Amino acid sequence: MKKYLLPPADEKIKYYKANLHCHSTFSDGNKTPQEIKEFYMAHGYSVVAFTDHNVFITHNELTDKKFVAMNGVELYACDENDPNGFRKQKTTHICYVALDPTMDLCPCWHRSKYVFGKSAEYRDAVRFDENEPDFERSHSGECISAMMKKGADMGFFVTYNHPAWSLENYSDYMGYDNMHAMEITNYGSVLDGCDEYNGRCYDDMLRGGKRIYCIGTDDNHNAHADDSELCDSFGGYVMIAASELTYESIAQSLRDGMFYTSSGNSRHIGPEILSLEFNDGKVKIETSAAKRISLMTDCRRNETRIAKEYGFLRSAEFDISDDTEYFRIEVTDSCGYKAYTNAYFTDEMK
Length: 350
Known about the structure:
This protein is an alpha+beta fold. Helix content is 15%, strand content 30%. It contains 6 helices and 18 strands. It has helices at residues 33-41, 141-154, 170-173, 187-191, 199-207, 247-256; strands at residues 3-6, 14-19, 47-50, 68-78, 91-98, 156-160, 181-186, 213-217, 236-242, 259-263, 273-279, 282-290, 292-297, 303-306, 313-319, 326-332, 338-340, 344-345. It is globular and about 60 Å long.
């Protein structure tokens, strides 16, 4: 029986371009939320999640018929007493994107700690559950999993961010539970010189039993000129399939995993996934012009289709063996930019 994992765009479903990790002048970014809205809309975006550091501030006034401003916050956990200092200190960064526009309480709040820099100017504007004790953070799997669970329980879409920039490895991230997604790429970190293409990290998590999505983000701070090669906008994004451009519809698609990730830059739109279907043990993908389409699984049995010299691929079909637990697909274009599907678990499609 044919099942669309990613349906083709038509009169009922459209794909909306989204950046789910963004910093404004409410923390260490250099554009106001209004300026970010205008900047991203001019480059074809319909959705931005404002995830300033440590202060959860809503921006519902920016949402209109052509743009959804999702409310969010990025929190961190590290060893505050690490003698190595910030440059060598492991840290965990987590984004929380509210799935309900009326949510206005900050998760894991502490009344006196963890707010730094310009964010401190907005401390008094943060609302939180005053019946909850201060949330003490530590760089441990137990604490970070508790932070993620708190956000998920409150109704946030919880993501694990930029493991390379964070100096984290397998022994760290495999101890983190209760996330909805991890960043398979983070453009700001890439421009910082980090190898922030995290397919291997994603597979580690999947093979370790975590059933999570993957996202690409900018993590933009806009410290460089808009036309600079170092402009950290438009390099990692999510294409969200939804029936309409409303906060509620976008949030439901995030819950359901109805999206894929792509990568590019301000001058180059990355690969597109036009549809993805599963039918009778086969997965078929339709794409924009691609040089390579690769199937990844939990097994030692991956496959790649490669275009002939000067040619392009626009589709591929792969058999999914009976012993496959999950599969995902990566699409690479002629410039080397990639699009990524989420992982799909075969026991959920029977």
